[in-house]
Amino acid sequence: MFKLEKVFQNDDTGYYFFINIIKSFALIVSIYIFSILEKNSIHELLNFQLFINSKYYLYSILVSSFYFILSFFFKKKEYKKNLKSFIENDIYNIVIIHILIFFIFFIFNINFQINNSTFYLFLYLIIILILLKLYFNYLYDRLIEENIIQKNIMVVGSYNEIKKILNEKFDNIVIFKCCLITDFNNQNLRLIKSEFKFPIFNQNEDIRSILEYHSLGQIWVINAEDKEKEKAFNKIIQFSVDTLNIKLENSDQSTNKKLLFNKFEYEFYEYSKFFGVNLFIKILIDKILAFIFLIVAAPILIISGIAIYLEDGFPIIFTQNRTGWDGRRFKVYKLRSLFNEKYNVTSQITKDDSRKLRIGKFIRKYSIDELPQLYNVLKGEMSLVGPRPHPVMLDLQYSNIYKSFLTRYRCNPGLTGWAQVNGLRGATPNPESMKRRMEFDLWYLNNWSIVLDIYIILKTFYAIIRYKGE
After folding, report:
1. How many helices (H) and strands (E) does the chain have?
2. Which of 20, 187, 393, 412 is the most buried (most CB within 10 A)?
3. Of the residues 93, 116, 145, the one at which a domain ends
4. 365-379 core/surface letters (b: 16 or more CB in 10 A; e: else)
5. 441 in the same domain as 318
6. Rounded to an integer, what is the distance from CA 32 to the centroid of its chain?
7. How far is CA 31 from CA 7, 38, 55, 110, 406, in A?
8. Region 368-388: what's the mean pLDDT?
């Protein structure tokens, strides 16, 4: 699971970032091909030295680099497939880039002869960009059709309010999975089912089960100030899913208010910062580093696995249900650190727990037992950095004590986190210690950045030595 639906959760900046990386690479490859074929045969295409010695070498680097840099100055939040968008995003950029390049060549007296070939190259690049635009239009539609970037939404409101929302024409990316009707008892159930064509719920339903089963990414509460919605809203707000309050009255588009599809005013009650370009970068960092760390850690995992087998046989790896993003469950992987006959974990493991293997004490002390979770990171179920995932029963227990507890899952759970590098590794034997961990996790969610993630990763190695696990 690559979390693409989360990258696109609130806007298309992540998609623009992705396609601009591809376009920048395509431009330099296209210029490379042109430079070789201008004076040589197709058999010389692999002769890289010809490209380095040509006048196009520096030019290609500048074109590709400037194209990528300019994409940050002309950010778009909604992907458009029309000709106007192509002119604004591609033709405009490529013209500015050539003006900048020729200005740089002139200032630094760099020899670059402008002739018919230069003109043909410019047209060639325009054609390449047209073909890429057509392909990315197709790709965008396919991602939506295959529900890869969909927004799974539950609508909360009265029967008439929900009916009005469903009659509106929204983008294909919006998928209404279910609804919660606040005046459910006053309605004709058979009529509602025939009209809505998807699951309907009342205010007494288990919200957590609904979120998990339908993999919801957003909840739209219509006119949340309405007293009749107070019970449902108080239940919903305890969970991690993005929650919007939508006003059905049409708003003036000339105002600075946030508008849903340029029509309805809205505001976020719960809002994850994990979307768009920054989330896309976080995912790339996760995949690359997790792969590298797995290779580096392979000898440690093999030795630890052999030690576990020699002391207590199989299994070496154990799995357990944990809570992930938006409350979705997944199986976490760990090295087994307890005796087989004492393997039924009904309580948290403590420092001097008699259930531990001899090797288990060591691997837990230095968090070696957590290394298999790098596979969870590669699968997209976890991140390198984020709130640590807890067993499902533990989440249920503490969500009844702390109202904000489940909002920890507004992002992927992490292999390490802000709480862990601040001394809160290992067991949380009492509500007070869990509250402290929750507070650190919520601070991370509200202050997240790529730089903070990198800092936590670096500090984790120090924390493992100083704050030994239980």
Report:
1. 17, 11
2. 412
3. 145
4. bebbbbbbbbebbee
5. yes
6. 34
7. 31, 10, 11, 18, 52
8. 94
Same domain, 233 and 297: no
- CA nearest neighbour of 369 among 377, 378, 360: 360
64 with 41, same domain: the answer is yes
Only one residue has tokens 């990316």, namely 173
For tokens 């230069």, what's the residue? 118
Q: Is residue 392 part of a domain?
A: yes
Percentage of the chain lying above the pLDDT 90 cut: 43
Produce one character per residue of 460-470: b if its CB has 16 or more CB atoms within 10 Å, e if not.
beebbeeeebb
CATH classification of the domain holding 195: 3.40.50.720
| Domain span holding position 373 | 276-466
- Contact of 442 with 407, CB cutoff 8 Å: yes
Q: Which residue has the tokens 């029967």?
A: 159
Q: Which one-letter amino acid corresponds to residue 245?
A: N
Let me know whether 360 and 249 are in one domain: no
Q: Which of 145, 164, 198 is the last residue of a domain?
A: 145
pLDDT one-digit tens code per residue, 87-141? 888 998 999 999 999 999 999 998 888 889 999 999 999 999 999 999 999 998 8
Q: How many residues does the chain have?
A: 470
152 within 8 A of 199, measured Cβ to Cβ: no
Residue 322, Ramachandran bin (φ over 0: left; ψ between -120 and 50: alpha; else beta):
beta
Q: Give the helix ranges, DSSP H, for 38-91.
A: 48-53, 56-73, 83-86
Are 216 and 154 in contact by the 8 Å Cβ rule? The answer is: yes
